[in-house]
Structures are given as structure tokens and as C-alpha cells.
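Data availability excerpt. The first of two example chains:
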Amino acid sequence: MAKLDPIVLELIHSKVGSIVDEMRVVLFHSGYSTVLRESEDGSAGLLDAQLRTVAVSKKLPLHFGSFSAIAEHLARYYRADELEEGDIILFNHPYAGNVTHPSDTVILMPVFAQGTLVAFTATLAHKADLGGPQAATAARDLWEEGLVIPPTKFYARGEVNREVERLVAANSRIPMETLGDLRGQVAACRVGAQRMQELCARFGVQTVTAGFAELMERVAGRLRSALESMPDGNYEADGMLDHDLISFDRSLRVQVSVSKKGSDILFDFSGSDPQARGPVNVTPALIKNTCYFGLMAVTDASLPFNHGFVEVVRTRFREGTIVCPRPGAPVSFYVPLAYLTADVVLKALGQFNAERAVGSSGGGGGVRIVGAGSKTGRPWVFMELLDTALGATSAQDGVSLIHGTLGVGQFRPGPIEIHETEFPMRITRFAVRADSGGPGKFRGGLGCTREYQLLEDAAVRVRGKGEMRSKVPPWGVLGGQPARVGGIFVNGVEVPEGVREAHVKAGDVVRVNMNAGGGYGNPLDRDPEIVLGDVMDGYVTAEGARDDYGVIIDTETLTIDYDATHALREKMRQQKKERSLGE
């Protein structure tokens, strides 16, 4: 078919973007749980009739391509000729649907126009509870993690399947919130379907579907051109998780080798460690997303995401590893490894061009507190996504108080007033963590600290110190230093490694410290005036200015002693040189 008129193509491009944006608004405004409507742990997407991604919520790289990965499995459950208008498919199966983990449920809706299947609308949203033990960190296989749903018709010809609703409700401690979020997902998909039908009525089915294919070709072409401008080469990078939440003495290594020649690029993860016994494994569909995101970050951040990335980027895995586990391996706490892998991908890509190198982010994470409802008789599950930080770049400090890499610009802590209204708790502190950002010529972003005073007995889920990144903290690059890691504290005492669940009493205070980002460049090259500004802002202490940056500040007058600073920096440079020679 001939190329579309450029104006028509741009109109289609603009419309599909607005459809996804409108779906996102409906999704979050319809959400019942705080993790969906306040922290916005969800996304929306539009796929073509072959389940190729046309547009997704660009604000959430974590879910890039996750919807379309169902294409590998859906035909085993429903053929295209078995789908009818009004059907809606529900699934959360990591291996029969390529979903991130069982807590993330996908709603997929076929869209018909003029009697033809033209597209699918899709939403993905985290569920605070879908069964399983409260401390699911102990899971050793998929079936211990909670309810697992393969692709199943949730609605047929527009009518809800009550048996499926009852099954889901019976497997949740908070059925009202769980079903409410699912219905919000359905509403968002229906809005997207209606808008798609309006688009087809305006331009015709053939023109719209041709436009989808051309948009994919355009992204693939732009990505190939961007790759051509990168130097050729082969670079490796790796990162470590402290443990897998089961075997606390075994660290886990994710490794990638990136080979690039011309417009061809391959991400090879075959060298990663064998799959874990604990629930930290990550499925390949999500690992591929880290590659797409990394390339977008170092080549052209304005690139929209669609199937064009899938056409260009090649990946290689070895089955039975932590990034390609065999079906049945637990994956419920995939977040630490997924974010670590994104940082490892960026670390490898940064070696192609130092100007594009970036310090490691603080990763993802948050807090989950479960109560039996001793005052109301109704169980409650509090889940909040908290801010870490981004690593520094060659041009600026890392962004503070933001979810790292894969969730950047999307996840956020919920409003304090909402939490205190809906849960038996008070939030007594929310602040940046001074000195947490990795020192460098450009400083890593700062993580946050947040304190919760419980008003009734509860249990706090614990993953591990620094989201299991304490042994190898978020790193700096090109002389930048690593960030400080976080932890969970009860009444000022850190919960020790190996404790999966901390039981707290009414009146106890739970403090959650989040990781920060790594630095870029030598800290001794940082402008002393900028260091002073950090001290005045509370981002760096006077002690941190002295020990990390070699800057002496008078805390009474808030001025720099330049002579003492020069002498200290020369001494620190000499000490570093001597250490290097000794090694």
C-alpha cells in the first residue's frame, strides 16, 4: 500500500497518543486502591490486531512492551475468530501472559470496527493483594505467590463473568479494592475502544491500520539512524543483588554484553546467574523493556515507544537464569532485579559514549504494611511506592525524590491526608536523606525518608537492606562515588537482614529510608560554591562536604574556608594517587 498522506499520518499518530492518555486518566480516576489512584502503579496501551504495540504510557518504561508480549500465548487460549465485540480478557500469569508478576493484572479488550478486528486496548494495574502469604518474600515457586490467572474471558459480549469475579474476590483480603481496580481497568479499555472506533469511522479501517504499520516503520527507521551514529563496539556490564530472600548467603549477578555494529544491536544476558530459589527472578519480556528504555535514553529520548523497537533490538537469553527463569519459578519481587538490570544496561551503553554515561539510580521499592483490622474487624493492606533517585550525568546532578529509571515520572508517594484517612496510621516525617546522593563532580540524586506511626498492631514486609543492593550500592561512573543505601527501622532500630516480616505494635514508628543515586566524575572537581549551596539546602551536611568533597564550611557563618579547602583537596588527591599506586 502507498504511503499515507503525511498530515493524515500525523493526525493518526496524535490521536493514538491521546487515546492512551485518556485511558490513563480514566484508569487512575477510577481506581479504588491507593496504590493505583494515588501512586499510579498502572499503565495503558493500544495494540494493533496482531497484538503489536502501537502506543503505550510513555511515563512508565517499566511496562514498555509488556502488553504485546501476550501475542506469544493468546492464540493457545483464544483464536482471533473466537473473540467478539464486548469480550474482555483478564490475566496475570507471568509465563502464560508475560506479565511482570502476579500482582499486576492485565485487562485486554478486542476492538471491532465495521465488523473487523482492528485493535486491542489494554491496561495493566498492580493489585495490593491477590492472595498468597502476607510475607510473600518466602515464596519458592509461582503458586505460593497468590492467585495466578491465565488468559480468561472476564466479560463475554459485554456481560461480566460473575464466576470469575467471585473467584478473584475470594482470593483477596481486600476484595472491594481489588474488584474496584479491575472495573476501573475495564472502564479505561472501553473508553479506548470507543475512541478507536471513532478514529476508524473518521479515516476508515484500512487507513488506520496502514497508519499503525507506518508509525512502527517510522520508529524503527529513526532508531536505526540513531544506532548508526553510535560508535561500534562490544561492551559488558554487570550488577549484584545481595540475595534472593531465601538464600541470604548467595549474591546474584546479572550480566549483559552489548554488541553494536552499524544499525544492528544485540543485548546478550546469557552470562547472568542461574535462576533464584526466591521470588526475585524476572521474565524476559520485562528484561527486553530495560533494553528499549536504555536505548531510548542514550539515543533519542523523544522517540515514542511502539513495535518498531521490537523490530530493531535483538536480545539473547539462556533459559534457567535469573532473567529467563523456567516456568514456575517465583517472580513476585522482581522489582529490585528489574531496576538493577536497567542500570546495568545503561552502564554498558554508557561505555559507547562517556557523555551519555550515567550513575546508577536508586532503583524502585516502597513499603507494604498489613493489618488484621483489630478496631474495625476488616483486614487492610497498605502499599506505597516511595521515591529513590536518579544517578548523575555528564551535565547535571541526579534528580532527587523520584522513582528510579523504569518508573521515572510515574510512581510517587500518596498524599499524607489520604493515607491517614484510610489507614490506622500517622505519617510523622517525609524528607530528603542528607548525604545519601553519591558524591561526584555532579552529585547523585537524594533518596527519601518517611516515617509511619501505627495506630494498631500490624506487620511490615521486609525485602532487605537497600532493596537488596547494600553489598554493591548504586554505583557512580567516571570517578563518581556510590550512593548510600536505605533500610527499614522500627522505633529507630534497623530490621536485621533475614527478617521477612517485622511485627509492630500500636504506637510504634516505622521509618523507611530509600536508596539514592550514584555520582558522575571526581567529587573533588565539584564547585565549592555548589557544595555550599547543597549544605544550605540540607542536601549535604558540613561533615559530608568535608569528607566527600574536601570543602571546609564554617557552619556558623555558612562560608567556605578556601585556603583550608584547597589544602584538604590536595591532600585527598595525593592520598587517592597513593592508593592507586598501591593497588
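And the second chain:
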Amino acid sequence: MFRDKFWWSVVLTVPTLVWSPMIQQWFGFHAPSFPGSRYIPAIFGTILFFYGGMVFLWGAVGEIKSRLPGMMTLISLAIIVAFGFSLAVTFGVPGMDLWWELSTLITIMILGHWIEMRSISQAQGALKELAKLVPDTALRLVGDKTEEVPVTDLREGDVILIRPGSSIPADGVVFEGTSAVNEAMITGESRPVEKKSGDKVIAGTVNGSGSLRVKVTGVGEHTALAGIMRLVAQAQNSRSRAQALADRAAFFLTVVAIVSAVITLVAWLLVGATPAFAIERVVTVLVIACPHALGLAIPLVIAISTTLGARAGLLVRNRRGLEEARNLNAVFFDKTGTLTRGEFRVVDVTPAPGVSADDALKLAASIEQDSEHTIAQGVVKSAKERRLSLSRPEQFQAIPGQGVQAVVEGRSLMIGGPSLLRRLGIELQPELREALERATRRAQTAVTLVEGQAALAVLAVADAIREEAHEAVRRLYEQGIQVIMITGDAKAVADAVAKELGIETVFAEVLPEQKASKIEEVKRTGKRVAMVGDGVNDAPALLTADVGIAIGAGTDVAVEAGDIVLVRSDPRDVPRIITLSKATYRKMVQNLWWAAGYNIAAIPLAAGVLAPWGIVLNPAVGAILMSFSTVVVALNAQLLRRLTL
């Protein structure tokens, strides 16, 4: 709208300038003269007042109704004063009209608004880009046939074909086929994620070279992508303390500008200036004081920082949470599912002499394939993550309370705990006995791989620490932030994890309902605290902390308790949040100082304090300077895009 209005305003302004006596005098030319030609500035200026100026007048009405006069009120006062005075001069009142100043003022104001709206629109483009990720059509399988249907026609339970290189149109579960899927645009994970039968896929991600058949589990508003879009929109609309400060500053600036305009008018009339000159000073004061830059300073930074966060997998639900993150000096981590995977893995393999660790893990996992026990499944997953090729077990048999046995590659093998060793009467070799005792000290589960009467290896199984957790803890300590682990697990388990990660403060054996009180306890020492948890049993703690950071578990972004959601469940995103918070606040402060400081210096200049030395600004120049301050603020905010998280 502002773009169209700007170009039409330019068209209407040209005749006003060409037939303006002052412009003709300045540039030494004479416009064509004909009956009524002297009224051309008045005619085109009036049309422009109602065409281009009406948007500002309606905006002023809204501000006055809400009792929050701001930039629209100032612009409206300036153009109303200029229009009324020029109209009076045209109909015979002594003085010099301001038609060309009015026309150029409105045109430049519209240009400033166009630039502002375009900048904000570009910053909020994250939502549009997210929406573009989902294709318009999908290939639905009906019996043996494939039909192309609009995505809006898909329903839960439908089976769709995902061809190589195509975008996935809906959330679902793979039931046939294997492929690597690029999920970077949703989770921020740079490497393609392998997908096979039983794995979830997310709408908007891009399939690799394989073909997948997927059963739809979520469409439209029920997809993970839609949840992310809701959080991005909510973050861009949420208000921060800095925004409230900017709004108050804009209000007071409006009051100051109006008072300054009145003083300017009275002062110039008292010293004998002509009414035309006095009113021109008033219009210039009102124009140059318009808090466009102040109004743009915070919203644009908010929009850009929200977009940066979303692209990095940091979804901001509450702007105040991100703003507060810069002041953090303590971060609580829930252990399970946050610093650890939340599922069993083999964390240590100690083989007997002559046996390799990979061979021992391969044999153990081959035996455990047919077991449903969580520890057994942890052994199998560990082997698969190391890309070990497993053999099919034969004559599989569970030994109640002791372990399992099977024939693998022609070898009769058993795997189990200490009770199995006691039953078989096996004495462990020193290195294996030490591995068993080490696992016990760390509160880990130890299982032994046995062939005949010989122990082949001891495997320590535990809730595996995320590889990213080490770097996350290190970076937080480098930022001067205390790291605290809080968990319901036994103290021995918690201490073992904390020792490996280098965390000095641990609260163990804490019930979910007690976590909030622990956070309150630390807050009473004067620290600003963040809580990182899964958003379910940690909800009270997330709400109690100064900043609640919820783990989104990849696709589960509908977390209501946290201020910020980590889509990737990567603890390294916590120091990234703090980096983004500090950079965002720094840009806000820079913009506020520029906008407010500019107005403080410009108002006296517009009022004419330098007129005795021949320096006088007309309204159009004032509008240019005002627009320049807006552009500077917009460009400074855009520099935030260069931030590396």
C-alpha cells in the first residue's frame, strides 16, 4: 500500500513543485502560465493531502482513541497545520503558502513508511519461508494406484509416496523404504538423517535419494511445522521490556514535540517573525520529531532475532525470556533426556585379551536382538550406531534373573549379570574384574559376554551422555555461568555423570515437585536462573526459573511451559540462546540511543535556534532527516543477521 501511495504521491508532487513560485525562483525558471495556473499547487497539494495524508490522519485517530499519541499524531499535526495555513493563504490571508513543503513532506513520510514496512516484512519472512516448505500436492496410494492430490485433502491414516528429492507434505511414520532426509530447515541438524521403517518424518523436510512410503499422522495445523510457525508468530507478537520502554519514550517524545511546537510558534511571533515563517518552524519541529526511528528500533530487532533463533532451532515463545537470558548466571539442567539421551547405551566395552571391543559388542548385540529388555535394546542400538553388522541368533533362550543365551555364528554364547557368573562359577580376569567394579562405582549396569567358561568382555550400560553436553557445559563455564545438574536419579548415578561433564553442583534424588523449590533456593542467593528440561514433569521448575528452556525432542514443539523451545534437543543451544540474547539487547540499546538522541538534537535545530546564523530547515528537509534516522536504525538492526550462533 505504501509503495503504491509513494509513486502516486510523486506524480502528484511534481506539478506542485513545478508551479511553486519559490521553486521557480530558486532554480531560475518560469513554469507555463495560463488562466488558473497559480492554483495548481493548491489543487494538487489538496489532492495529495487527502490521498497520501489520510493514512496518517486515521492512524492519529487510532492513537488518540487509545490515549497513546505517537508518530501518527505528530505527522497529522504537521500536515494539518501546513494544509490549513496554505489554504488560508490561497484564499487571501497574508503570508506565503506551504503547498510544496506539504506535498514533499507527505511524499517523504510515505517513503519512510514504505521502507519501514518493507524492512519489517522482510524480517518477518521466516513465517512465509516456513510455509513454503510444505508442497502443494502429495502422492496418495490407493490400493495399487498412485493419485496426486492437494495436501489439504490428506487425512490421518493415508499412505503417501515420497519420491527421491521431493518435500514431505505431512508428518508421518515410515512403514516401507529407507532414505536420508534433510531436516536442517526444521531442526537445524546439518547432516541428513537416516530414515527406515518405524521412524518419524516431518512435513517440510526434503527426502534424499531413497523412496519412502509413509503413513500420515499429522496434517495442516497438526504438523510439527505448523507448531513451529505458531511459536514464531507468538514470539514476534510478544512484547518485551525494551519495547515497553520504546513505547513510553515515543509517547513522551510526542508530548515534548507538541510543547516545543507551541513554544516555537509563540517565540517567533513574539520576536516579530511573519506567521508564515513561524508556522513553517512549527511544521518542521513536528516533522523532525516524528519518532519513526524510535518506533522501528525495537520491533525490527525483535523480528530479526526471532528469525535468527528459528533458523538455528531456537523457538522463542516469550520475548521476555530471550531478553532475560543475557542476565543469567546459573543454569539448571535436568539430567535425563537433556544432558543424557534418556535411553540406555553401551558406554564402555572392556574386552578380554585377544578380543576386540567391536567384535565383543557385535556378538553381544547379535544375542540381544531377540530380547525385549531395555538394557538389551540399548546394547543393540549401540552396535547399530557403530554400524556393526549383526548376525542372526539361533536357539535364543532367556535365563530368568540371569541373562540370555543363543548360538551366534556357530558359537554358543551367553550374556548376563553377576548372577550368571556365579551360576557358571566363572572367575573374571583382573582387567575384566576392574571394569565390573568401575561400572558399579558409577552406578552403571554391567553385563558380561561369556563363551563356555571364558568371559569375553564386560559391557557397561547406562543412560548415555549426549556428546554435545560436554561442549555445552564448557561454553557455559567460559561465559561465567554456573552449571547445576538436577535429577531424580540416585546420587551415585548423578555424581558419575556430573564428574564426566565437569559439573560441580549436583542436586540428586529430587522429586519433580521439589525441583521448583531448589530453583527458588538458588534464586534467593541473588542469581538469575534458567531451567532446561523436557517441559512435562519439569513444567513447575520451568515456570519458576527466570528463563524456562524446554527441550522440544525434535518434532514435539508444542511445549507450553518454557519461554524458549530447543527443537534439536541439543544442550549446546543453551549458550547459543545467551549469545543471541546479548546481541539482541545490544542492538536494541544502540537503536534506542540513536533514535532518541537524534530527536533530542534535532528539535532545537528545527525550531530555528540557528536562524540568526542563517541556518534554517524547511519541513521537507526535516522530513528527509527524519527518514534518514529511520533508515540508519533499520540498517543497524539488519547487521544482527551477521551474528553467528
